[in-house]
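Quick look at the format.
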Amino acid sequence: MKRIPCMEAVVAVLESEGVDTVFGIPGAAILPLYAALRHSGIRHITVRHEEGGTHAADGWARVTGNVGVCIGTSGPAGTNMITGLYTALADSIPIICVTGQAPRAKLHQEAFQAVDIVEIAKPVTKWAVQLKEPAQAPWVFREAFRIARSGRPGPVLIDLPLDVQRGTCLYDPEIDAPLPVEVTPPAAPAVRAAVDMLMGARRPLILAGGGVVIADAHAELRELAEHLQVPVQVTLMGKGAFPEDHPLFAGMAGIQTQTRWGNAALLESDLVLAVGARFGDRHTGDLETYRRGRRFIHVDIEPTQIGKVFEPDLGVVGHARPALAAMAGEAARRTKARHPGRWPARIAELRRTLLRRDDFDDVPIKPPRVFREINDFYGPDTTFVTAIGLYQIWSGQFQKTFLPRRYLVCGQAGPLGWEVPAAMGVKCAHPERQVVAVAGDYSFQFLMEEIAVAAQYRIPFVIVMINNEYLGLIRQAEIPYDMNYAVDLHYGEGGIDHVKLMEAFGCPARRVEVPGDIADALAWATAESERERLPVLVEVMVEREANAAMGASLDAIKEFEPLPRQELALAIDWSD
């Protein structure tokens, strides 16, 4: 076996694990790894902030299903990565962050930029490890990929002391390969019990969480739903797991990102089969309301996730794809494919009548109108990226998604600034796809320096900015406190001009102030982005103090905009 620089072995492992792009910032403490990278086929994107690099790796991972990689030097590079690691852990996204470190002999001497990043990162990673010996290098990285992919996926941090990076190891890439990842099958008795409950329910729902998307289990989900004619809801992280134009689509329940008919459907259900969902508080709201009158089956690959928020009537441990496949197979053995009955018809009625308006012609523009135009203009293969704020809530309520891995959102951590670097990662992974980042004005400013990266590397995507010149979600949250404090941005009074900012980066931008101009602006931005190979901004100036529909429980959502005139008559009596 040949002795080679251990960082060359690491790069060989990265390539064999399917990594073709890494995001990072070089520095003195990580240069041996960079020396190995320059002779590889891996593309390196030099970001402007390590947090941006982690979010770019996150976006790359979400659309490929593979492990994203971000590299940084020591000290503040690692601490800057913590938000990205937390985001990936919260949303079950496999990424590996690699940090340089001072030589081992200097770690106890307060050397320049030496920090115990392993201990700092442990709470927000599945595994945080410092490489101690050069001979361990390829094997630690192999294990990192295995851990990142296994069970509930998530992030890993590997810290590389400089003297270790300069070492050598025995390694032959011809006889090495990725470590196997176990796909946990469900126990057969649990599958039978779940199908018993599903077939015995009168008004069952399947709730598809982000785990269905991560597991690429959308085909198995659809097979089970169609065979038994069980309506399907999605969580925010699960958008795209089930096509929203399907007759069995039952909307989205929640206290923020929700549809009116989705909440109504869940409240009328008598059984919920939740797959790969964590029952986040902004989905469930008040748990007493959420649980009342229905039983729950919880399927999750992570055993300790079951019962964490509330105790289900049945817990099933297993990977979403084999679990759904097993349930579909069990259902097919027991019964012929069912025809749509009274319950799917009720879902269709709720969907037809419990709507929200998005056809406003008002000036200033009402935000729902923006999402109507987005839905009308972009096709089903477009990949959307959005983060946190009122614009994310409107997006979840109004945007339609038809395919998996086409709607990406940082669901649990909600870091502002996520959209631009994540969109960059998506476009690097799929250059052929149309990529659109839907951002708020304040979130855009968190990591707007990454626009320079997209411009430098000619990474084209469209940014649709919903600009209300406010910290809008916090302004709305302040209403019960009878205050409007520290949230007014009001750029027109000597503040930032986003169009000029984009132009300073060498990128096109256009501002829209009337609803009739939105479609033309989207068409212009899409064409201009592809022609110039640059990010392009459409800044939509919306009503400053518009509020999104939300509440404390599924049955107490406050609507702030006028509703369509056609309303549902009386609720159905299901007692007969």
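Next, a different chain entirely:
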Amino acid sequence: MTEPVTALKGIGKEAAGSLENLGVRTVGDLVMMFPYRHEDNRLKDLAETPHEERVTIEGRVESEPSVFFSGKNRSRLQIRMLAGRHLVKAVFFNQHYLKHRLTPGMTITVTGKWDRGRQVINVSSFKEGPKQAGEDFEPVYSLKGGMHQKTVRRYIRAALDAVAGDLPDPLPAELLEKYKLPGIAEALEGMHFPRDGEHVKHARRRFVYEEFLGYQLKMQAIKKARKETGKGTELHYDLDKLRAFIDSLPFELTGAQKRVVNELCAELKEPVRMNRLLQGDVGSGKTAVAAIALYATITAGAQGALMAPTEILAEQHAQTLADWLEPFGVRMALLSGSTKAKARRIILEKLGEGEIDLVIGTHALIQPDVAFRKLGLVITDEQHRFGVEQRRVLKEKGEDPDVLFMTATPIPRTLAITAFGEMDVSILDEMPAGRQPIETYWTKREAFPAVLKRMGRELQQGRQAYVICPLIEESDKLDVQNAVDMYEQIRQYFGGRFNVGLMHGRLHPDDKEAVMREFSEGGLHVLVSTTVVEVGVNVPNASFMIISDAERFGLAQLHQLRGRVGRGAHKSYCVLLADPKTEIGKERMQSMTETNDGFRLAEKDLELRGPGDFFGKKQSGMPDFKVADPVHDYRALNTARLDAEQLIASESFWNDPEYEPLRTMIEQSGVLSDERID
């Protein structure tokens, strides 16, 4: 399996170079290069085949081919063929050379798109003679650089023949038997050269489980290693002080907040470092939970740090936490890129001497000269906005501090146990009492003038409004309203009665901060913006939002945007301007008007669009599976997670020979190295 592909007959240097471009270097790589789909080439009755569906038929050529040319290299060859009881026209584009091969009376098999009205099949592939057994399901590989499907299939056939009888199966017999999974050799045949649909189905089922189990074993091994190393700081907080602080908060904690606070406090006392993700919808009270955990840490004699992605968000956190914590003697500081040099120097000195209990800041917290006397808890807000390396640097400012990641993006449990498998996950799934739901409406773009009129009434009452657009400038390819045009249109509509601001991603960060600050302080009545307002700022006076071309956003993003309003005491509204062309698009708009529950919407978004909207970047930690799909194969994912937990906890997994391939896989992945565990 480790031999280079050139060890196979028929693969020379040039072919090996083409395969290397696909990430294939060894014979093992080649046999594990799975197709991304299988073409269904089973013969179908044309009477039951829908219009424009891909179809494979077998029949007899009934006419001499006729060829028509249009232009230098463009041709259309057509024949009549009898397929069952249907006499149809088969059209071949740019294949005039077949004129002398297709003769009346011969049997051929063709695949192509079926034009039901004209009784024509536009041929994409054909072969002489009837269809052979074993050709019902044809694998299709993701190729580039001039590689052909048939060539790759030939190489894979040679590779499978070469390793036949010498294929160690990473899955032990116990698991194969438990889930009635095919062995490795049978499953590889099923992926590459299936006998029928059942063969493909069972082969795929086996590799889906194998991929999920491998990933979950790594995650569970990280958890086990972290606990066994004993790395972490035991924080023995003052329970009486903590209760007094909770009683002083200007609201009653929700049941969900109490549950999560108990989870966090229990972990702070453990000698093992906390590594937890806190999910909570907009307005669910994550900041209060963070404040309680930070105060507990401080009463234990340690320091806390909270890192936010923008200066404005850091400032808002600092103001809120100061109101709650300073009456209890907590010494706080705000550290950001705009902190003056002298003030920064004083803050750093006090941090190092332990005279500051809590520092709140932006990326400025991870600068090399920032040092703590005893860092006990690190909280990263909107953690997906920071890279893995940035989060790691902040963690290393202390000796194994507890770590809490917070996100307001509701991540379905389906993805949370996959992407954050080595973390513990806490969820705030209950909203504080008295929080008003945002009324959401979906209307066509032609109703825009009426929507502006409604927005004007809110502005006259002293409220503020957001208008969100998907693009910055005009695009010939996308018929969407851009932010610049929208800004001008709204300014003209209100004729100077209200101040309108514009913000987008191409503004200098300082200019973005300035515009956002002016809006949050009430200097701007309307903020026209792209999605850069998605995360963070708290403007309680904003009660109206228009999202233009809303069909271009996923549900998770629409919900995040909507969460910018409804933060104060005033009734709030969100209007979706959208003309969706698809049923899925209409379903998304309808879902937004029916619920304010971010987790329900996240599950719906996952169902409609897949996981790409949640984790678009490699740094997110979303694993790259070859076969498995965390959304559609969720049951297998959950099964693999439970199996992995049991295996990692058992003595036999670490000692018995049958588990050696799985142990080797964990060791080779590097997840148990000290660097990874930290």
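The mean pLDDT is 85.

See the schema section for token definitions.
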